[in-house]
Amino acid sequence: MTELAEKQSAPAALPFLRFELAPILIFAAFAAAPAFASASGAEGYVLSLLTRVMIFGLAAMSLDLILGYGALVSFGHAAFFGIGAYGVGILASHGIEDALIQVPVALAASALFALVTGAISLRTKGVYFIMITLAFGQMLFFLATSLAPYGGDDGMTLATRSLLGGSGILENDFAFYWATLICLLAAYALSRAIVASRFGRVLRGTRENATRMEAIGFQPFRYQLAAYVISGMMAGLAGCLLANQAEFISPAFMTWQRSGELIFMVVLGGLGSLHGAIIGAAAFLLLEEFLPEILHAGSFFLNDDIRWRLTENWQMVFGPLLILIVLFVRGGIMGLLRRGHHG
Amino acid sequence: MILANAIGPFRRATGLTPHRCALAASKALMTATLFLIQALNGLQFGLILFLIAAGLTLVFGVMDFINLAHGVQYMVGAYLVAAFSAWTGSFGWALLLALPTALAFGLLLEALIFRHLYDRDHLDQVLATFGVILFLNQGVKFVWGAAPLSVPVPEILSGSVQIADGLLYPVYRLAIIAAGLFVAGLLYVLVSHTRIGMLVRAGATNAEMVSALGVNIRRLFMIVFGFGAMLAGFAGAMVAPILSVQPGMGDNILILAFVVIVIGGIGSIRGAFLAALLIGLVDTVGRSFAPNLLRVFLDPSAASQTGRALAPMLIYIFMAAVLFFRPSGLFPVKR
Amino acid sequence: MAETLLDIRHLRKNYGALAVTDDVSLAVERGELHAIIGPNGAGKTTLIHQVSGMLGSNSGQILFNGEDITHWPMHERVRQGLARSFQITSILPGFSALENVALAVQARSGSSFRFFGNAAHERDLNEPAMECLNIVGLGPRAQVPAGLLSHGEKRQLELAIALATKPKLLLLDEPLAGTGHDDSQRVVETLRRLKGQTTIVLIEHDMDAVFTLADRVSVLVYGRVIATDTPERIRSNAEVRAAYLGEEEVV
Ligand SMILES: Nc1ncnc2c1ncn2[C@@H]1O[C@H](COP(=O)(O)OP(=O)(O)OP(=O)(O)O)[C@@H](O)[C@H]1O
Ligand SMILES: [Mg+2]
Questions:
Q1: What is the CATH classification number for the domain harbouring A208?
Q2: Nearest to A236 by CA among A325, A115, A127
Q3: What is the pLDDT of residues A133-171, one digit of tens each?
Q4: Counting beta carbons within 10 angstroms of the beta carbon of residue A35, is it exposed (0 to 12), middle (13 to 18) or buried (19 or more)?
Q5: Do residues C1 and C74 both lie within one domain?
Q6: C17 lines ligand 1 (CB under 6 A)
Q7: Could you report the predicted ipTM of this complex, rounded to two decimals?
Q8: Distance B205 CA to ligand 2 centre (A)
Q9: C156 and C192 share one domain
Q10: Domain with C143 in it
Q11: With a 6 A CB cut-off, is C87 part of the ligand 1 pocket?
C-alpha cells in the first residue's frame, strides 16, 4: 500500500490552514440551506435530498478516516450502514423506538462487527484485505436477506421515525435535518481531532511506512483495528440516520455496490481530507439526482428512441465518469481546488 | 424446467436452484438422494466458479491486477450466447460464436482501460474496474432491455437421466460438469506443460524476473487476460440455459470467485480448483442441510429459521476460518 | 566490566538450500562499538533483520540484556531497547523530519491511544525529538518534509529516529552508504560522540570509518563469522585478508 501513501504524502506537509476554508464553507452552506429550502417552494424535496447528502457524507467521511489516513481499502463499508439501519428497524419493530436506546445499541453492534471482522481482515494485507472486507460485507448482506421476520429480501417500512427522549420531534423534516447536521458536524470534529492526535499520527505513519513504524516500536495492527472500529461506528450512525430518513430499511443498503459507491465518493472528493469525502458524497448524489435531466436535455440531437433509452439508463454515464476520474483526475475535487489555488 | 422467477436474485445468479425431482417414499432414502443431488449441484456450481476464478487468480497472480470487472465478463458471455442462439437458433453455433467474441471483448477492454491500470495502486484498479461494471450492467440493459432473457437448453442435452435408484438428474447439468472438468484438465495441461504456462507460473511468482528474461511481458499479460475473459465468458455461456440471463448476474458470482481465490491462495490454479469445489459444495449442501443439522440442537421452527439465515453465511465463515489460520490462503504462491 | 548485552548463539537463516546466515555466534559487550564487515551478500543485513525481529530464524538463539528474545515480535524488542537503522532508507516521507523523530519519541513515552490533543504541538514529544535532530546535525532542517531531504540528510535522519527510541543497543546498517564526503564525516563524528554512551553494532563497507571507530570487528563471509577481534589484529589476520580485504585490494 505504499503507492497509495506516496500519493497522499504531500498534503500532510502542506500548510493546511489555507484549506480550512473549505469545511467552514461546507458547513455554512448546510446551515443556510433550510432557509433556501423554504424559499424554493419544494421544501420537502430539497430537505430530504440534502439530508441524504449529509448522511452519505458522514458514511464517506468515516471511510476516509481509514482509507485516506490509514490506506485501508475497505470494500465492505456499506455493511455498517446496514447494521445501523437494521439496529433502528429491528428495535423499532420490537417497540423500542427511542433513538437514545437505538443509536447506542446500533453503535455497539457496529463496533462489535468491526472488531471481529477487522481482527481477521487486518491480519492480511493489500488485495487480500480488499477482498475479505468485501466478503464480510456480502455475508452481512445475505444475513439481512434471510431475516424473514424483518422483511427478508424486501426490507421493511418503519412505522415512524425514532423518538428522541420520548418526543416525536424528528418527525419534523427540519428538526431531522438539524439533527443530521449536528451528527455530521460532531463526527467531523471528532475525526479532525483523531487525525491530529497521537493516535492519528500513528495511523498516518503506518499508512506511509508500516515497517518503519514497527521498527520504532509500534504495533500497527492495534491502531488500525481501533481506527477500523471507530470508522465502523461512524458509518453505523449514518445507517441509523438513513433508516430514519428513508423510514425504510432493506438489504439494498448494504450491497457491495454501495460499498463501491462509498469509495467512489471518497476518491471523487479527494482522499485524506475528511471534508473532501463530504464534497464527494454531495457531488455523487446530486449527479445521481440530476443526471437524467441533464442527459435528456443534452441529447436533444438524437432520435427519440435512443434519447429515451439514454435517459432511462443514465447510470451508464457513471461508469465512464469513474474511469476517467481514476485515470486523469488525481486527488479528486479537493485536488482540483488545491491545484486551482496554486495557479 | 426450473422457474427462475420464483426464486431470489442470489439463487438466480448462482444457479443454486433446488432441483425438483421425484422423491422416493422412504425418508432416509430421500435424505440420501437429496444429498447426492445437492452434491452434484455443488460440484456443478463449483466448476462454474472455478472457470471464473481461474482467470481472476491468473490475472491477479501474473499482473498484480485486481479486476472487479471479471464478473461482467461472465455476464457478457451469457448475453452473447443468448443473442447468438436467438439469431442462429442453435446453442452449439451460439457457443462457437460467443467464445471468440468474449475473447475479443476481453482484449478490447484490456487495450482500452485495463492496460493503463497495471502500474496503478489497487485502489485505482478497484475503482476503475468498478466503473466498468457500472457501465456494462447498464450497457446490457441499454442494448437488450432490463427483462431477463432465457436460453433454451440444447435439444440433445435436454431431459433427465436416471443416475441411481429413483434419482433423476438433468442431462444438461451433467454436461456442465463434464465441460467444467474437461476445461480444468485442459488448463492443468496448459499451465504445467507448455511454455506459456511455464511463463505464467513464473510470472505469478516473480513478474520482474520474467520480464528480465526478455519475455514480452505486455504480450503475456494480454494473453492471460484474454484467456481469463474467455473462460469467464465460457462459464456464463454454459449456465445461460439454466439461469436467467440478466443485468448484474455477474456481480454476486464475482464475490464468490474472490472468496475462492482468497481461500485457494492468489495466483494458484490448483488452489482455485480445490477452493471452488469446496465452496460449491459447502454452499449448496449447507443451504439444504443447515436447517436439518440445527434441528439436533434447536426446536424445528427455530432451527429452520436460523438455518436459513446461517446457510448463505457459511462460505464466508468458512473463508474467515481459513484466513485466520492461513492469512495467504491454502496454497500461497507469492513469496 | 565485559558484560554481554547481545548474545547471538548458533543463529541460522535459510532460503531454501541457501544458508544466508550459517551458525552465527557473536557476543556484543555493553558499551562497545562492534563492527561487522564482510563482502556484498555475506548476510550482514539478514543478520540485522534477524536480531531486530524483521525476519524469523530457522534455528539458534538471540539473548538480549539477559532475555531470550528469539521469538519476540519486533515492537517488543524495540521496547526492550533494540533500535535499528535500515540500509535502504526507511522514513516517513510525508512527515517533517521533526515529526519522524517525534513519532519515535511517542512510541516510548506513554500511550498512543490518545484521540485528542494535537500531537504536532506536544512539547514533551518535540523537545526530545529536537535534541536527537541536533545530535545528528539536522536541527536546522527540522521542519522540512523528510521526503525532500537530501540522501545524506535522510541517512542522518535514520540515525536520529533510532536514537529517539533511547536504545540500549543501536544496530546500524551501513549508515554511510551513498553519502558524500561531508555527510559521511558528520555521521562518523556523531558516532564517535555516541560511542561509549550506547552500545553500537555497526555494519559498514567504509574501512576507514570501521577501523577508526570500532572497538572490535567481526568478519562475516558467506554467512559465517570467520573472525572476531580488535581492529589491529583483524587487519593482520591472514584468513580475513584472504577472504575479504584481499578481494578489496584486487578490486
Ligand atoms: N528473500 C530472499 N530470498 C532469497 N535469498 C535472499 C533473500 N534475501 C537475501 N537473500 C540472499 O542472502 C544473501 C545475503 O544478503 P544480505 O542482504 O544479508 O547481504 P549483505 O551482507 O547485507 O550484503 P550488502 O553488503 O550488499 O548489503 C544474498 O546472497 C542475498 O541474495
Ligand atoms: Mg546489506
A1: 1.10.3470
A2: A115
A3: 998 999 999 999 988 889 888 999 998 899 888 888 888
A4: exposed
A5: yes
A6: no
A7: 0.90
A8: 24
A9: no
A10: 90-166
A11: yes
